[in-house]
Amino acid sequence: MKITVLEGDITEASVDAIVNAANSSLLGGGGVDGAIHMAAGPELLEACREIRRTSHPRGLPAGQAVATAAGALKATWVIHTVGPNRHQGEADPEVLESCFESSLNLAVELGATSVAFPAIGGGVYGWSARDVAEAAHAVIVDGRQRGRWEQIAEVVFVLFNDSMTSVFCQVFDHDQW
To answer: Measured on CA atoms in the order 10, 12, 18, 24, is the torsion positive or negative?
Structure first.
């Protein structure tokens, strides 16, 4: 699995699946979530509404993931995951790790070979860049050691600013990917 870290706009990623740092409503919001919904167009919102009508009428719990078609994005799928909100007392790093793990598991189910992640929880949900990078790193290292997600050839972390990108580079730079 190749790991790439870059600063940029995740909506422009040329990958099979883009991971959305969604809120539990799945109906759009600010930050990455809002940008993905805006770029994907109304098809994404309608797909999310269908998920709310059927499998998740109370919203998606933190740490879980669901997928929709990607609408107008270059990607084929959007994988929606909800990070724990530190500002609301959700400070369990295992739930943050579960966001990455659930998303990768779902990517495999979908047949994706490339996945782009934002810094889940690293914006308005209050997790530090280091916490998010270390959670992602722990999940990916553990998965490699267990031979999981072998079909995924590339994971791209598309981050929104230089300081976040710098921390992810530091955390992932110690390994040979």
So the answer is: positive
Bridge-based pairing state of the strands 114-117 and 17-22: parallel
Question: Hey, CA dihedral for 109, 12, 81, 126, is it positive or negative?
Answer: positive
Nearest alpha carbon to residue 119 among 89, 78, 160: 160
pLDDT level of residue 173 (50, 70, 90 thresholds): confident
Catalytic residues: 33
- Cβ neighbours of residue 46 under 8 Å, at least 6 residues apart? none
Domain spanning 2-172: which CATH class is it, in words? alpha beta
Q: Residue 15 carries which DSSP code?
A: S
Neighbours of 161 (CB within 10 A): 12
Rg of the chain over all Cα atoms, to the nearest angstrom = 15
| Beta-strand pair 77-82/114-117 | unpaired
pLDDT score of 175 more than 80:
no
Check: CB of residue 27 under 8 Å from CB of residue 57. Answer: no
pTM of the model: 0.96
Count of alpha carbons within 13 angstroms of residue 43, beta-carbon side: 12
Give me the residues paired with residue 117 across strands.
157
User: Residue 14 and residue 75: Cα distance in Å, rounded?
Assistant: 6
Give bridge partners of residue 22 from the DSSP assignment. Answer: 82
